[in-house]
């Protein structure tokens, strides 16, 4: 019997990217017909899942907000989202459901449990989210990226976080730099703030550039700014005389990460796991408004593991950034020590191990797909 696995959740790229990695692994072993996404159907989900070539069912679930009115609307939307999830799971013939996190995973997990379809969960952050804590009571297990700071009502295994094959099969650093038009041997700093936290990192970087200009010719940069700051960042890097590739967004994050020696970044779980898969150490600036302050816990674990440095947003200014660049970008020894820690912490086979564990919890077994095996898409 061929497994038919539903992937429930989404809302942000940090939830969707690991789900697509799992979907690719499932499709490589069977076909894309063995995968169905249950999501909220927002624009980001439609773009990412659609581009990956998978079917999805958009559930009528309202995004929760901070106000009582918004929370009430979300609760009442469950009354229609759960039946919609039941219909989708029945029509698909689901034999198991993996909850990947985010508010959109809750109706799918509840519906699957109601239908006696086995449920397992992914938790990418060190602090399990509210949805994970709620859905754990229906789950056979939770597969965590990092050791969790709170107990759940189901067994927990730390297996890593799924990353797409593009990251595990990315080119070497010199080849990646050449493809991006950079010097193939010059130390390279990646600056990436993500969808929520780019502006603060952009602002401090641009403020520091006049002082960093003394290092021109000794390092180069890749700067993913987000939509609003690209023009200002491009002008500031040019004025500094430091070689830099500045883009608002990229559909090839694996190429930018592979080209990097170290990254100045937020502490979102997907970004951390993707950088670790490539052995890239991190200067981590947790987003202070993240739910349950989970980015702080993520960054603390990476720093304790010797794969990065924790930098508070309140303590990050131009002078501090110049110190970090001098110590971890210009000086090779400190950077290489962090890189060794990143390689030890990486879990490049996490996607396959998580799927193997899920299949066992669903009552299936199957040989792993070869690393070079093509993904079988629907005709």
Element string (H = helix, E = strand): EHEHEHEHEHEEHHEHEHEHEHEHEHHH
Largest sheet: 7 strands, parallel
Q: Give the spatial strand order of the biggest sheet.
A: 3-2-1-4-5-6-7
Our Rg estimate from Cα atoms comes to: 21 Å
CATH C-level label of the largest domain: Alpha Beta
The overall pLDDT average reads: 93
According to CATH, the homologous superfamily of the largest domain is Glycogen Phosphorylase B
Percent helix among the residues? 40-55%
Unreliable stretches: none
Strand content: 5-15%
In short:
The chain has helices at 13-29, 43-52, 68-92, 105-114, 130-135, 165-168, 173-179, 194-212, 230-240, 253-258, 269-277, 294-304, 318-330, 332-345, 350-362, and strands at residues 5-9, 35-39, 56-58, 96-101, 119-123, 141-144, 156-158, 188-192, 220-224, 244-247, 262-265, 282-284, 308-310. It has 379 residues and is an alpha/beta fold. The longest helix is centred in the first third of the chain and has 25 residues, at 68-92.
Tell me what the structure shows:
- The protein has 379 residues and is of the alpha/beta class.
- The chain has 15 helices and 13 strands.
- The chain has helices at residues 13-29, 43-52, 68-92, 105-114, 130-135, 165-168, 173-179, 194-212, 230-240, 253-258, 269-277, 294-304, 318-330, 332-345, 350-362, and strands at residues 5-9, 35-39, 56-58, 96-101, 119-123, 141-144, 156-158, 188-192, 220-224, 244-247, 262-265, 282-284, 308-310.
- The protein has a seven-stranded parallel sheet, sandwiched between helices. It has a six-stranded parallel sheet with strand order 10-9-8-11-12-13, sandwiched between helices.
- It starts with a strand and ends in a 17-residue tail after the last helix.
């Amino acid at each position: 019997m061929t497994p038919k696995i539903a992937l429930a959740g989404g809302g942000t790229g940090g939830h969707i990217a690991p789900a697509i990695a799992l979907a690719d692994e499932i499709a490589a072993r069977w076909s894309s017909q063995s995968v169905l996404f249950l999501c909220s159907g927002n624009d980001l989900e439609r773009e990412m899942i659609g581009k990956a070539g998978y079917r999805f069912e958009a559930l009528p679930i309202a995004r929760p907000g901070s106000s009582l009115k918004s929370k009430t609307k979300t609760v009442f939307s469950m009354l229609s989202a759960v039946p919609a999830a039941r219909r989708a799971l029945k029509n698909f013939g689901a034999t198991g459901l993996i909850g990947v996190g985010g508010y959109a995973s809750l109706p799918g997990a509840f519906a699957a449990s109601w239908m006696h379809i086995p449920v397992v969960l992914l938790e990418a952050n060190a602090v399990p989210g509210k949805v994970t804590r709620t859905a754990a009571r229906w789950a056979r297990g939770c597969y965590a990226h990092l050791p969790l700071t709170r107990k759940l009502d189901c067994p927990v295994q730390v297996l890593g976080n799924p990353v797409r094959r593009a990251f595990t099969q990315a080119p070497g650093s010199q080849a990646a730099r050449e493809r991006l038009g950079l010097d193939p041997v010059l130390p390279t700093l990646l600056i990436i703030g993500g969808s929520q936290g780019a502006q603060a990192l952009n602002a401090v970087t641009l403020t520091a550039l006049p002082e960093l200009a003394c290092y021109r010719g000794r390092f180069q940069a890749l700067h993913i700014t987000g939509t609003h700051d690209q023009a200002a960042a491009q002008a500031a890097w040019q004025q500094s005389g430091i070689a830099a590739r500045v883009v608002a967004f990229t559909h090839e994050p694996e190429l930018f990460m592979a080209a990097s020696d170290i990254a100045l970044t937020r502490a979102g779980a997907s970004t951390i796991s993707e950088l670790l898969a490539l052995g890239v150490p991190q200067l981590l600036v947790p987003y202070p408004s993240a739910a349950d302050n989970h980015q702080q816990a993520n960054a603390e674990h990476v720093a304790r593991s010797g794969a990065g440095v924790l930098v508070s947003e309140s303590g990050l200014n131009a002078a501090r950034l110049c110190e970090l660049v001098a110590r971890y970008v210009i000086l090779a020894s400190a950077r290489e020590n962090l890189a060794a820690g990143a390689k030890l912490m990486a879990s490049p086979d996490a996607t396959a191990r998580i799927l193997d564990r899920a299949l066992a919890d669903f009552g299936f077994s199957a040989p792993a797909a070869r690393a070079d095996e093509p993904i079988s898409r629907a005709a």
